[in-house]
C-alpha cells in the first residue's frame, strides 16, 4: 500500500486534512485538492492509483468528474465519500462508474480497508494470488494450497472459497453464495450450499470458515482470539 | 340547572341544536300571536262589544218593569248565557257583571258584581279597585227611559285570560301539537344530515400522517365549503411539516461532514500516540463521536420514514433483506462476542420501501446486539402467518419491564435502567414504529423466555 498515489478531492478543511494525514501515516502519497477544477488539472498532470471524491464541491458536483473520467475510459478506481446516504444516491454513484461509496462519517479503519480493497483491484488482481491464514489461492490456475499442501477443490468449492477470501472479514450471505457459486441449483439450494460448505471445510481446515447460522459465512483475516 | 342542561345538549349535538332552534322559532311565533291577542284585549273591546247585550238587558228591564222578580230572573239568565259563551263557570271567575238602575233605585245587581261598583258617567270607562283587583265599568243609558245599566269587567290579567280563553282557542292546537312536532323535526334533520356521516367516515379512517386533501367532489355545497377550508388548513400543515422535516434533515445532513472530520482526526491521532492515558481520552472522543453520528443518521432515518409518499413501493424479498442486514451487522456482533442466528422460511415477499425496512431491521438488530450480554445469542425468525410476514427477534439482554413496553416507542424515551449502562439516542424504536406503520404492519414487545426481549414485527405479505 505504501507509495500508492491518491488524489483526495474534499472541500472541507478539517476532514480533508484529517484524511490526508491519516493516509500519509500509512505511507500513501496523498495529493489534496479542494475544487473540481484543481482535480482536473492534477489528473491531467500525473497519474493516480485511486481517487477519493467528495460529491458536494464548491465548483460543481463530484459526479461530473466521475462521468467525465468514465467517458474517457479512465480505469482509475474511484471511491466516493459523501454525506448523502440515501439508497438512491449510493446507487447513482455506483451506476455512474464509481467503484465504491462510503457515507460520512466513517471509521478510519473502514476507509483504509476500502482503499486497500480498491488498491488490490487497481494493482492488477488478475495476476495475483489471495493469501490468508495459510491458504493461498492462485486465481489464473484456480489452484489452492493449504499450508503449502495442494487442496483438490471442486469448481463450486473453489468459487465459495474465492468469494469468501475476496471479502474477508465480511459475512457473505447464503443467498449471495448460492447465486454466485452454485448457479442453476435453485431446487434445494440451501441444502446443497451446506453440503458444499461441509466438503470445503474438510479440505481447508475446520477453523477457517465461520458460520453465522441462517445468515451466511465469513473468513476472518485473523483467527478468532488472536 | 336547566340552562346548563340545555347548554350541554346544544353543545353536544348538531341535531339537538337544530331541533332547539326550530322549537325556539315556533315558540317565538306563538308568543307573538299571544302578544297580539293580549294587546287586542287591552283595548277593552270586550266592554264595547257588550253594548248590544246592554241594550238587550235594558229592553228586558223596561218591558218587565212591573214584575221585578221576573225581570231579575230574565236578566240573570242572560248573564249566565253570556258567561257560558265566555267559557267561564259561574262564580269561578269574576266575569262581566251588571248593575241595572232606574232613577236611583237598583233593579238588578249581579251577585258577582264587586263591592263598590257603581254607575259612572255614560261614555266613560272609569277604573276602580275592589277586593284587591282592578275593575272597569261602563254605563249605558237607555234612550227611551231613565233605565241605565253598568257593566263591570275585570281590568287586569283575568280579563286577558278571559280573552285568551274566548279568542285564543286557535292557539291551542299549536300548544298540543308542540311535542308531536319534535319527532318529525328530528327525523328530517337526521335524514338531511346523511352527508355528514359520510364525511365523518372519511375523516375517521385517516392516519395521523395522511395530510392529503379531502375529496370535495360530490359533496353538498355546505360540506364542500367546509372541506375546502379544511383542505387549505391541511395544505398549510403539510407545508409546515415538510419545512420542519426538511430543516431537520438538512441540519442532520450538515452535521455529517464535521462529525466525519472529527472522527478521522481523532483516529489519526490515536494511531500516533501510545500513551494509554491519552488513548483513553481519545477513546472518549471517538465514542462520543460515534453516538452523535448515530443520532444524526437516526434523525435522518426518522425524517425519511415520516415522509408520506408511498409511490416508491417495490417488491422486496423480506427474508433476504433480513439475511443481508444480519450479515452486515455480524461484524459488530462478533466484536461483542454475540452470536447471530436466522431461521424461518424463504421467499417471503412484500411491497415496501427498502430504505425504511433497512432502517427498521438495523435499529432492531442494533438494539438486540447492544443489550446482549457477551456470548449472548440474538435469534431472528421470519415466517409467514395469516397473510402476514412475521419477524421475531429475541435477545438474552435485560428485557424491558411490561409497564414501559409502550413508552419505549416514544421519541427520545429510554428505559431509565438501561440509560445508565448503554448509550443511545432513544430513537431506534420510534423509527421502527414509524416504518412498520408506514407499511401497514404492527410491532410489539414481549419477554423472550425467562430473560431478554422479543420484538415481533408483522408486515402485510404481498398478495
How does this structure look, described?
- The complex is a heterodimer of chains A (226) and B (463).
- With 226 residues, chain A is an alpha/beta fold.
- Chain A folds into two domains: 119 residues, Rossmann fold (3-Layer(aba) Sandwich); 93 residues, Arc Repressor Mutant, subunit A (Orthogonal Bundle).
- Chain A is 41% helix and 23% strand.
- Chain A has a five-stranded parallel β-sheet with strand order 2-1-3-6-7, sandwiched between helices. A four-stranded antiparallel β-sheet of chain A has the order 8-9-10-11, covered by helices on one side. Chain A has a three-stranded antiparallel β-sheet with strand order 12-14-13.
- Chain B is α+β, with helices and mostly antiparallel strands and 463 residues long.
- Chain B has four domains: 63 residues, no CATH class; 111 residues, 2-Layer Sandwich (Beta-Lactamase); 106 residues, Helix Hairpins (Orthogonal Bundle), CATH 1.10.287; 152 residues, Histidine kinase-like ATPase, C-terminal domain (Heat Shock Protein 90).
- In chain B, 55% of the residues lie in helices and 16% in strands.
- Chain B has a five-stranded antiparallel β-sheet. In chain B, strands 7-9-10-12-11 form a five-stranded mixed β-sheet.
- In chain B, a hairpin with a 5-residue loop joins strand 11 and strand 12.
- Chain B is rod-shaped and about 150 Å long.
- The two termini of chain B are 59 Å apart.
- Chains A and B meet through helix 1, helix 5 and strand 12 of A and helix 9, helix 10, helix 11, strand 7 and helix 12 of B.
Amino acid at each position: 500500500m505504501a507509495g500508492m498515489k491518491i488524489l483526495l478531492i474534499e472541500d472541507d478543511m478539517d476532514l480533508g486534512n484529517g484524511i490526508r494525514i491519516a493516509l500519509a501515516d500509512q505511507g500513501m502519497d496523498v495529493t489534496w485538492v479542494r475544487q473540481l477544477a484543481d482535480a482536473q488539472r492534477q489528473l491531467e498532470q500525473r497519474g493516480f492509483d485511486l481517487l477519493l471524491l467528495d460529491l458536494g464541491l464548491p465548483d460543481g458536483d463530484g459526479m461530473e468528474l466521475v462521468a467525465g473520467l468514465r467517458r474517457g475510459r479512465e480505469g482509475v478506481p474511484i471511491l466516493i465519500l459523501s454525506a448523502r446516504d440515501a439508497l438512491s444516491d449510493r446507487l447513482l454513484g455506483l451506476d455512474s462508474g464509481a467503484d465504491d461509496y462510503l457515507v460520512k462519517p466513517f471509521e478510519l479503519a473502514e476507509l483504509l480497508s476500502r482503499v486497500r480493497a480498491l488498491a488490490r483491484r487497481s494493482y492488477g488482481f488478475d495476476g495475483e494470488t489471495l493469501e490468508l491464514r495459510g491458504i493461498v489461492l492462485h486465481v489464473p490456475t484456480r489452484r489452492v494450497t493449504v499450508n503449502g499442501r495442494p487442496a483438490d477443490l471442486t469448481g463450486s468449492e473453489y468459487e465459495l472459497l474465492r468469494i469468501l477470501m475476496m471479502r474477508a472479514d465480511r459475512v457473505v450471505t447464503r443467498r449471495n453464495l448460492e447465486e454466485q457459486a452454485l448457479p442453476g441449483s435453485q431446487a434445494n439450494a440451501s441444502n446443497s450450499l451446506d453440503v458444499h460448505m461441509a466438503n470445503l471445510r474438510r479440505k481447508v481446515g475446520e477453523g477457517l470458515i465461520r458460520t453465522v447460522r441462517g445468515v451466511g459465512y465469513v473468513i476472518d483475516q485473523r483467527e478468532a482470539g488472536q | 340547572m336547566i340552562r346548563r342542561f340545555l347548554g350541554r345538549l346544544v353543545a353536544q349535538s348538531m341535531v339537538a341544536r337544530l331541533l332547539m332552534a326550530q322549537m325556539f322559532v315556533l315558540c317565538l311565533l306563538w308568543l307573538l300571536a299571544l302578544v297580539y291577542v293580549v294587546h287586542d284585549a287591552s283595548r277593552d273591546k270586550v266592554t264595547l262589544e257588550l253594548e248590544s247585550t246592554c241594550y238587550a238587558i235594558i229592553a228586558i228591564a223596561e218591558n218587565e218593569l212591573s214584575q221585578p222578580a221576573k225581570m231579575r230572573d230574565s236578566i240573570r239568565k242572560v248573564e249566565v248565557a253570556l258567561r257560558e259563551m265566555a267559557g267561564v263557570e259561574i262564580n269561578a271567575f269574576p266575569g262581566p257583571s251588571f248593575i241595572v238602575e232606574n232613577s236611583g233605585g237598583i233593579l238588578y245587581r249581579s251577585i258577582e258584581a264587586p263591592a263598590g261598583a257603581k254607575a259612572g258617567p255614560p261614555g266613560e270607562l272609569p277604573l276602580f279597585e275592589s277586593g284587591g283587583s282592578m275593575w272597569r265599568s261602563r254605563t249605558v243609558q237607555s234612550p227611551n227611559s231613565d233605565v241605565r245599566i253598568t257593566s263591570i269587567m275585570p281590568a287586569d290579567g283575568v280579563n286577558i285570560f278571559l280573552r285568551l280563553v274566548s279568542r285564543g282557542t286557535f292557539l291551542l292546537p299549536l300548544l298540543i301539537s308542540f311535542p308531536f312536532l319534535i319527532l318529525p323535526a328530528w327525523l328530517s334533520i337526521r335524514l338531511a344530515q346523511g352527508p355528514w356521516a359520510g364525511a365523518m367516515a372519511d375523516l375517521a379512517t385517516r392516519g395521523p400522517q395522511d395530510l392529503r386533501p379531502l375529496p370535495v367532489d360530490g359533496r353538498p355545497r355546505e360540506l364542500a365549503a367546509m372541506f375546502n377550508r379544511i383542505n387549505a388548513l391541511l395544505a398549510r400543515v403539510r407545508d409546515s411539516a415538510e419545512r420542519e422535516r426538511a430543516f431537520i434533515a438538512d441540519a442532520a445532513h450538515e452535521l455529517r461532514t464535521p462529525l466525519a472530520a472529527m472522527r478521522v482526526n481523532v483516529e489519526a491521532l490515536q494511531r500516533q500516540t501510545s500513551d494509554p492515558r491519552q488513548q483513553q481520552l481519545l477513546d472518549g472522543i471517538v465514542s462520543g463521536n460515534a453516538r452523535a453520528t448515530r443520532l444524526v443518521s437516526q434523525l435522518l432515518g426518522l425524517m425519511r420514514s415520516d415522509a408520506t409518499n408511498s409511490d416508491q413501493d417495490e417488491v422486496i424479498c423480506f427474508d433476504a433483506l433480513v439475511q443481508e442486514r444480519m450479515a452486515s451487522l455480524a461484524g459488530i456482533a462478533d466484536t461483542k462476542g454475540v452470536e447471530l442466528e436466522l431461521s424461518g422460511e424463504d421467499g417471503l415477499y412484500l411491497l415496501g420501501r427498502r430504505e425504511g425496512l433497512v432502517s427498521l431491521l438495523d435499529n432492531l438488530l442494533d438494539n438486540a446486539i447492544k443489550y446482549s450480554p457477551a456470548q449472548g445469542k440474538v435469534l431472528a425468525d421470519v415466517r409467514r402467518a395469516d397473510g402476514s410476514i412475521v419477524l421475531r427477534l429475541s435477545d438474552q439482554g435485560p428485557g424491558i419491564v411490561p409497564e414501559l413496553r409502550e413508552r419505549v416507542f416514544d421519541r427520545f424515551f429510554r428505559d431509565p435502567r438501561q440509560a445508565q449502562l448503554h448509550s443511545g439516542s432513544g430513537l431506534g424504536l420510534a423509527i421502527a414504529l414509524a416504518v412498520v406503520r408506514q407499511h401497514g404492519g404492527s410491532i410489539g414487545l414481549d419477554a423472550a423466555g425467562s430473560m431478554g426481549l422479543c420484538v415481533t414485527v408483522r408486515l402485510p405479505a404481498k398478495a
